[in-house]
Amino acid sequence: MRSPRTGRFALGLTIVAVPLVLALLGPVFAGEPGARAASFTLGGGHWLGTDFVGRDVWRQVLHGGRPVVLTALAATALAYLVALPVGLVSALTRHRWLEELLMRPLDVLLAVPSLLLILLAATVFSPGAVGLALLVALANVPDAARLVRAAAAEAAARPAVEALRVQGETWWRTAVGYVGRSMLRTLAADAGTRLTGVLYLVATAAFLGVGVAPDAADWAVMVDRNRTGLFVQPWAVVVPAVLIVALTTGTNLLFDAALDKDGRRGPHRTEKEARP
Prior knowledge:
mainly alpha, 75% helix, elongated
């Protein structure tokens, strides 16, 4: 009998596979652009109709996922690349001044709403895809660093860490070999939620025209630019919107299923070991 965890994993994988395949492989199969037709029309060889400037919606969908997915993945990876060392050093250092130096600037940055930070930066310079990834990563660093610090501080307070210090183990082995491994499950749970938030933030920024051209092949831009024709030609809005939702929902289901697997094995194993 299939367990609920297996069902959630299969469902999450099925949901996330469609937007991921379209995002990563779509441009390969998009082909050459055809002649433009009238705006917001159905038929005429365009099985999902045309967009606000007469382009084929299906071709725009095939091209529009890669910027969203790659920008979100890059922003999430960059956020952890900064947050992990900052959080670990803050939790394990014995120098209070160093902890204050690392964390207090992040507290100030945390007080600024993420979207507002991106919009303020966009008024100073025009970020491209790389700039948008950096801005989204910057907006996520404070929260991620605080979570890493809290998880690392809990692990660092265990007797095993003090024993490692007494044995003369290096800081790297203590921080990465023990503390880092101890908080893997916490980081995995946060990664699923954070990637979902980053996807929505990237899509919202693109929806507002930050980091992308107004007529770019981007799922979020498609939703924004084609919404005026929603009741005339809905597929230009519905399809990219559903793909963004499917990507975030499927990602959450996959992480939930993986964490549920780890969480259930522990109690069952302990129960068996406790039996006479």
